[in-house]
Amino acid sequence: MAKFLKSKTFKRIVISLFITTLVCLTLSFIIYNGQYFQNWLNSVYSPYKQITVIGWFLLFAYYGVCLFCLWQSNKKDSNYLFLFGVQVFTFAVYEIALYCFSAYTLAAVSSILSVIFSIWIIILLFKNRQYALMSLLAVMVLLYFYLVFRGIIYCSLEYGVWKA
To answer: In 10 A of CB 42, how many CB atoms?
Structure first.
């Protein structure tokens, strides 16, 4: 047991858990205090609040697993962790832009950047024949495609031809 606690794997698990928890709590605090998130959360038409909260923390648990797996497979010549960090940062910009400022154009642009960086990571993983990790990150690409679609719809509703 003492050998496992001193191993690199255990240290990576702890650091991955610490990083994702810190990012999750910071982003949660910023977004929860956002004016537009409060309006959405307290709206009559909002979905079940428990599902939103559970889904939020499950998303960051998924990010933690992806971070740990990318860190395990990271080599000196690959830049998986940097691309993953940029991709998480663009997701954070998306969430802050949407729920704190209601800036739909910025949210759409940042979600498109999230898709680009996620696909870039998947291409690098495919070239290095890491198919399991590639399929793990493909789920995030699907989520980001949904966010792009939703962001473009919100942007067109706010600024586009659908506005009456």
So the answer is: 9
pLDDT at 38: 61
For residue 66, what are the contacts with CB-CB under 8 A and spacing of at least 6? Answer: 84, 136, 137, 140
Here the contacts of 65-72 (C-beta below 8 Å, separation 24 or greater) are 65/136, 66/136, 66/137, 66/140, 67/16, 67/19, 67/20, 68/12, 68/13, 68/16, 69/133, 69/136, 70/121, 70/133, 71/12, 71/16, 72/9, 72/12
**Cα 107 from Cα 157, distance rounded (Å):** 14
Comparing 69-78, 105-114, 153-162, the range with the smallest average pLDDT is 153-162
Each residue's pLDDT tens digit, 39-92: 666 666 666 667 777 888 888 899 888 888 888 887 766 788 888 888 889 888
Tokens of 35: 């004016």
Distance, in Å, from the CA atom of 17 to the CA atom of 66, rounded to the nearest integer, reads: 11
Residue 129 region by backbone torsions, left for phi larger than 0, else alpha for psi between -120 and 50, else beta: left
d(CA 30, CA 107): 16
Which is more confidently placed, 94 or 2?
94
For residues 159 and 105, the answer to whether their CB atoms sit within 8 Å is yes
